[in-house]
From TrEMBL:
Origin species: Bifidobacterium colobi
Name of protein: Alpha/beta hydrolase
Disordered: region residues: 516-536
GO molecular function, one term: hydrolase activity
Keywords carried by this UniProt record: Hydrolase
Length: 536
């Protein structure tokens, strides 16, 4: 491995999705504070032991002309007096200091894990985050140019610091350095574009969506002219298995990654599937009824794909009718109709990036047509979508990915809406074992990649040559894995609900591909039974 290669890890925090009483929360909070207090006491004790060692050293040198003190070992000098063993006592003091430091670190780490797993201080953190976002928003609204210049300066500073660290320019560091300001800047721009006056609607959080609605009123018709507005949905068949049976959110995320990367050409499963493809799976429950799982990858950017860049603006609109007209939503709902999903049959949706926005839009705007029971999003800005309160939402975001911050707000933290928020950092490097002079061994450090840790989860895929965009789904998978490893009751509760929705035997996996055209030209006769044409 090159010295410029890096392994990455993700440390997660959990917000919302709570499933325990306030009294239980208070008990956990008291335990966490007690652990922190003990950690502080041990840290103070470590300082005392270190101070004692320094004082012994000072006593030893207080009489420089005394040979007994200089030796520092018990002996009988010619003058007939002895001294304590300063060398031994000093070493013991340092040993006690090190042990106290170790115990303090372990207790502090345990308290941190408890806080993260049970979202003990999430309300206070979200409140502070909201205040900060509103402050940045106000600054950008009041002085848009100054706000953008300031953000650009921070981004350039991040680029330079990353250049120093990696020895080469890497634009990814610009997103890493600006992530605390991203939501505020986006909501400020949304207010400016949407015509929201400074200070107006302080309680609202959908400034970006209102701004997107204004943009979509112009970009939508232009997109229809350039790309066409006739949607063809074709059922296609995979040569090899891509989306397999899911029994958890984790396995569903893996299937989402496989389909997304296969259609982008990042992996080769020899399936024959191309861009603009989603998967619809039917599970049969023990009582013979059906349940469904719809897997929706993100933007592919192809010029005739319903999952192009242009559709993102429409999906983010605060206007329900505009959201419903977005090509990617029409494509997925059309595929769901072709697959035969019944109005009352339970449905789970999982999507990455634009796919997650599509899932949130369907849950918000098609609640009377489909029984959407659970939505899983990864890296999707969906905070302001009006998802019904009885629909469960599990969102996974990375703090510096930018895309997840495009909604300009934090996700709601309710019992049915859980957010796992990950932070990416370099994983500890491996080190070789050593044999000491006295024959004892010092074990080497094992890199986190391929290991299990409560502190953080490894990002799959091996080493990278520098920091990369954390919007790739593998980072969201690591974030969810770490939240699962923490044993969070909220995560376990949402995991259980997701599993209950699709509990059953997988009976079929069908793939549907969408293409945009500027005319209603019909497909060849031998494909006519597989193609459905939609017009807005």
């Amino acid at each position: 491995m090159s010295e410029n290669d890096y392994y990455w890890q993700v440390e997660s925090s959990v917000y919302g999705g709570t499933g325990y009483a306030p009294a239980t929360l208070e008990e956990y909070t008291a335990i966490a504070r007690a652990l922190d207090d003990e950690a502080s006491a041990l840290a103070a004790l470590a300082t005392s032991w270190s101070s004692a060692a320094l004082q012994l050293q000072a006593h030893r040198t207080s009489a420089p002309m005394c040979p007994a003190l200089s030796a520092g070992e018990p002996l009988t000098a010619t003058a007939g007096h002895t001294t304590v063993s300063y060398t031994v006592l000093g070493a013991r003091c340092q040993e006690h200091a090190a042990e106290c430091t170790r115990l303090s670190s372990e207790l502090s780490s345990t308290a941190s894990l408890l806080i993260r797993a049970h979202a003990l201080y999430s309300d206070a953190e979200l409140s502070a985050r909201r205040i900060f976002t509103e402050s940045v928003q106000a600054g950008v609204q009041f002085k848009p140019k100054h706000g953008l210049i300031g953000t650009a300066a921070v981004a350039i500073g991040g680029l330079i610091s990353g250049w120093v660290i990696e020895g080469k320019p890497n634009p990814t560091w610009m997103s890493t350095s600006t992530y605390p300001f991203q939501e505020g800047v986006m909501s400020g721009l949304g207010s400016f574009i949407g015509g929201i006056a400074l200070g107006e609607g302080v309680e609202q959080t959908d400034e970006v969506n209102q701004g997107a609605g204004k943009i979509a009123n112009v970009s939508g018709p232009v997109k229809d002219i350039v790309q066409g507005n006739h949607l063809e949905i074709t059922e296609v068949h995979a040569r090899n298995e891509v989306v397999r049976s899911s029994n958890s959110v984790g396995s569903a995320l893996e299937n989402l990654r496989r389909l997304g990367e296969e259609r982008l050409g990042k992996i080769n499963l020899n399936s024959g599937l191309e861009y603009g493809t989603i998967a619809v799976q039917r599970y049969q429950k023990a009582d013979g009824s059906n349940a469904w799982l719809v897997t929706i990858p993100g933007t592919d950017g192809k010029k005739d794909s319903p999952f192009g860049w242009e559709q993102n603006v429409e999906l983010m609109s605060s206007d329900k009718e505009r959201r419903m007209r977005a090509d990617s939503v029409r494509m997925v709902t059309g595929a769901m109709e072709q697959a035969g999903i019944g109005k009352d049959e339970p449905v789970a949706l999982i999507g990455h990036s634009q796919g997650g926005i599509v899932a949130a839009t369907i849950a918000s705007d098609w609640s009377e047509d489909y029984n959407i029971e659970h939505v899983v999003t990864a890296g999707s800005p969906v905070a302001n979508h009006p998802i019904p309160s009885d629909t469960w939402v599990t969102s996974v975001e990375i703090d510096d990915e930018l895309v997840g911050a495009l909604d300009g707000a934090a996700n709601p933290a309710t019992e049915n809406w859980l957010t796992v928020r990950g932070h990416v950092s370099p994983a500890p490097a491996a080190s070789a074992s050593t044999v000491n002079a006295d024959g004892s061994c010092t074990p080497g450090a094992t890199p986190i990649y391929g290991a299990t840790s409560y502190d953080a989860a490894p990002v799959a895929g091996g080493a990278t040559n520098g920091r990369e965009l954390s919007h790739w789904l593998k980072y969201h998978q690591a974030a969810y894995q770490n939240a699962t490893d923490l044993g969070s009751p909220a995560v376990q509760r949402h995991e259980s609900h997701f599993q209950s929705v699709i509990d059953g035997e997988l009976k079929e996996t069908r793939y549907f591909q969408g293409r945009m055209t500027s005319s209603t030209t019909q497909a060849p006769a031998d494909y006519s039974s597989q193609v459905q044409t939609f017009e807005q």
